[in-house]
Specification:
Radius of gyration: 22 Å
Strand content: under 5%
Helix content: 55-70%
Oligomer: single chain
Mean pLDDT: 83
Largest sheet: none
Order of helices and strands: HHHHHH
Distance between the termini: 11 Å
Number of helices: 6
């Protein structure tokens, strides 16, 4: 089954964090219809692909900010007062995991986004024993 433009809109709105009832209302469908759409492998794969793209864009933005932050810390280490140098050193060492209790995103398990192809969705559902994968 090919996704309609309403299916794609719903997937985008859900991936953006909108509540199901609000998505259904905005698209003029019932919550039951939206719930049924969520069971389509194509729909789930499309929504997960959107989530992965959003996550990748946000992660790239954070990496660019990290580069700027590291340059700022380097400048402070090179030219700041003794107290500023000490604080910059603590931040740098903490971020590298050598000082204090760093709790940084790259030290945590990365966000897991579900399958992005219909076959991956089907395989995942089959592994979980989900009965929706047995219906045609």
């Amino acid at each position: 089954m090919a996704l309609s433009s309403k299916h794609m809109q719903a997937a985008l709105l859900l991936a953006s964090g909108m509540q199901s009832k609000d998505v259904a209302e905005q698209l003029g469908v019932t919550q039951a219809t939206l719930c049924n759409w969520k069971h389509y492998e194509e729909f789930e794969a499309y929504k997960n692909a959107i989530l992965r793209e959003m996550f990748n864009k946000q992660f790239e933005s954070l990496l660019r900010l990290n580069i700027a932050a590291l340059e700022t810390l380097k400048t402070l280490l090179d030219t700041g007062s003794e107290n500023t140098k000490l604080q910059a050193a603590k931040i740098t060492l903490s971020a590298a995991g050598f000082f204090g209790e760093a709790n940084l995103p790259y030290q945590r398990t990365f966000l897991t986004i579900g399958p992005t192809t219909m076959s991956e969705v089907f395989e995942q559902r089959l592994e979980k024993g989900d009965p929706t994968c047995f219906s045609i």
